[in-house]
Design goal:
By secondary structure, the chain is mainly alpha-helical. It is 78% helix and 0% strand. The longest helix is centred in the first third of the chain and has 28 residues. It comes from Mobilitalea sibirica.
């Protein structure tokens, strides 16, 4: 382990506050507002761009843009709670990799490719779970209005 271990408040901020706030801002507010007068594809591209800019890192701009596109598509079908869970898990795995210095200098490209495929698979599992049990805002609205 290295000296990058954070205190409890920093961990909560990185693992809970930031992902939830980013999801509410980019997919909850921005994507919904853009969808009112644009196609979903254009709206999703704009929100993904804003999401990538929010991270203030030119080196990871494309990575965050693609992640934003993926989360936008998932939000459309699985709801914002689903994207929050995926975002929190992604931040958690990156935090663990940083704290435990999980890097392979000679195999870094293969490792990160494997990590991306694994994370993409886990995203599919989470999305499937949310769809199977219909855990979404639309279902909650329907069931609440029936009461």
């Amino acid at each position: 382990m290295n000296n990058k271990v954070l205190n409890f408040g920093e961990i909560l901020t990185i693992l809970l506050f930031y992902p939830i706030a980013e999801e509410l801002i980019t997919r909850g507010i921005l994507l919904n507002k853009l969808n009112k007068n644009r196609t979903f594809i254009i709206s999703n591209i704009i929100q993904a761009f804003v999401f990538s800019i929010l991270h203030f890192n030119i080196n990871t701009l494309i990575t965050f843009f693609i992640f934003g596109l993926l989360l936008g598509a998932i939000k459309r079908h699985g709801g914002i709670l689903c994207t929050m869970v995926i975002h929190i898990l992604r931040n958690f795995t990156v935090y663990i990799m940083i704290v435990y210095e999980i890097t392979f200098p000679n195999l870094s490209r293969w490792f990160y490719l494997f990590y991306g495929i694994l994370f993409f698979f886990l995203t599919g599992v989470i999305y499937t779970y949310f769809k199977k049990y219909d855990i979404s805002e639309e279902n909650k609205k329907t069931s609440l209005s029936e009461i």
